[in-house]
Amino acid sequence: MVGAGPIGLAIAWRCAARGLRVVVHDPAPGSGASAVAAGMLSPVAEAYFGERQLTGLLLASAARWPAFADELTEASGVELGYRTEGTLLVGLTADDLAEARRLWAYQQGLGLPVTPLRPTELRDREPALAPRVRGGALASTDHQVDPRLLVPALRTAAQRAGAVLAPQAVRSLSDVDARVTVVAAGCGAAALTGLPVRPVKGQILRLRAPGGAAPGFRHVIRGYADGEQVYLVPRADGEVVLGATVEERSDTTVTAGAVLRLLRAGVDLLPELAEYDLVETVAGLRPGTPDNAPILGPLPARPDVLAATGHHRHGIVLTPITADLIADLVTTGVADPLLTPFHPGRFAAAGPDPTNAAGRLAGPGAADVGAPDRTTEEDLWS
Amino acid sequence: MVGAGPIGLAIAWRCAARGLRVVVHDPAPGSGASAVAAGMLSPVAEAYFGERQLTGLLLASAARWPAFADELTEASGVELGYRTEGTLLVGLTADDLAEARRLWAYQQGLGLPVTPLRPTELRDREPALAPRVRGGALASTDHQVDPRLLVPALRTAAQRAGAVLAPQAVRSLSDVDARVTVVAAGCGAAALTGLPVRPVKGQILRLRAPGGAAPGFRHVIRGYADGEQVYLVPRADGEVVLGATVEERSDTTVTAGAVLRLLRAGVDLLPELAEYDLVETVAGLRPGTPDNAPILGPLPARPDVLAATGHHRHGIVLTPITADLIADLVTTGVADPLLTPFHPGRFAAAGPDPTNAAGRLAGPGAADVGAPDRTTEEDLWS
């Protein structure tokens, strides 16, 4: 196992619990994208045009989260901050709301539970929302967890199940002596495997309600504010995560412009944030892929090497299903059909970057190239 | 000596250089307001209505800065980042410019060198200014120094001259065994002396030009931007200090609202700042006084205790003159007439807070109560 982020640790936990001998190589466990992640479990709000197979996987994994959280807390003794108040989707201006409604209509068309709310209903749920907010909807099944609690919990559970953490960095797959090697190294997977995983920079802020109080809102809030898309994730201890930029950059500097845009949008949506302490500004690198979907399964030329990377914005929500399916594959040698659309071979077949293949149109469906889309609305939400 | 900020260290240096035995008590030298200060030497831009005596002192101290900087660098071996490009005063909108011009007219009325610039002249000097900036002026004699270089330089110079730094905190004046005790403890002076020194919170940001470059501007820029007053101080190493809030609070938390307001104003004035790294967000406490002027001289009831505190926004610019005049007073026992308006007794005579005294009108001149204002225009700029 290469990589001790949530994905690697969860696979290690599952494999060790099945009696396999597991060594997890990572000089800095939990220091990758998960250290910056907000921990939204948002298959509904993140069901985007042209990503129906990914949406299916997100929904299937989110459905496993409640049991996964219970089991992990039982195994580790660590509470994960798993919260089920749901997610409010809001638009600040009429233009923002029009853009949001276009996506909500698509999501409703997939049969997903996005419930439009009248402004009075919105304010009944979250009185702290700015009076300017023009409208919104509720995604009641989109929950949240705290990634900074998740990683230590997984580490404890994996170690209690018998997994060993090795601090040596893996520079090459030949450094690893194992029957099966799982590469769950996030952005580091590119150098190890040649897979098209690229860093996608995200900057986020952590605020804290003044005086040790809980935040003045309970739902995760995802909003469009004058064209900016931001989210606000409240934690019981007073923390609020405000994010995130999506930048095609590989540095982790925090820039004045990004902080300005995040704060402006956040304060426009929820004015009381202006009085919150700004306690952290940080940037991380998501492992992105050409079709925004993860890469799960054996490398075409190395069946003993399994990729579990490329989770992009979805690493936390996809942790349970990735762990289950990869552990199944390691122990049985048989790939679950759920894995088929996410096979590492899909990029080799379609060229280095199938989304840019000549002659293809951009727009809904364009990112699904390279694998047939068999998902139906029933599949998505059953 | 109580307090090893710039004021305390400079007095210690001057006193030790005259052969006095000096012990400076401070558990954390340089950790007060100076660690957050921008280091503007701005007697002209900070010549505000109703503060003519203070303006006179600021001008007199700024005039000593070039020689002081040379002497200190000679004594310490430390370059101070003393820069003489001058300060540009700008207004973003027509309203901002109208407000700025009212102050510039007052400053010109005092005979101070504030030179209005045409927009083309403004952009010739700083092409990075936003095209929106409506107008400006040059205060060519308002310079800058880096307070984070100043403190170590003063510490070295004071120690080389024979001053001893003692890390014990002073809780009461009875803890100090000396012929003369100088209280240069910033906000801490209130508890030690009963003087009306109160904390005035300031939040500032430190940005850094990307890629190790120098900032894309050379002048200190002080601007009004949609009603916010901010300053931008460029350093040779790429740092830009962006400040500052002025808040009647005694905490040092950094708030989302303050960072938002500073960044918005800064980026509106100088758009390239959006691409700068945000490397530090920090708050400090200035030692404020009822009339915004420092408190310099013997306590009425304790002629052996000299106050050198209450420097508010002006601690860096006032360092040379404070050091010279207090060292004179310690060695000769005679107070320079320059100190008269700043005597600690002025508050006792006028009550606890003369600016709030019943029957007085607010506005220009109101803050000068308690001492006659004999400053003339000629005095100010001779």
Automatic annotation (TrEMBL), chains A, B:
The keyword Oxidoreductase applies. Keywords: Oxidoreductase, Thiamine biosynthesis. Its EC number is 1.4.3.19. Signal peptide: none annotated. GO terms for molecular function: flavin adenine dinucleotide binding; glycine oxidase activity. It comes from the Bacteria. Pathway: Cofactor biosynthesis; thiamine diphosphate biosynthesis. GO terms for cellular component: cytoplasm. Residues 2-329 form the FAD dependent oxidoreductase domain. This is glycine oxidase. It comes from Micromonospora coriariae. The lineage of its organism: Bacteria, Bacillati, Actinomycetota, Actinomycetes, Micromonosporales.
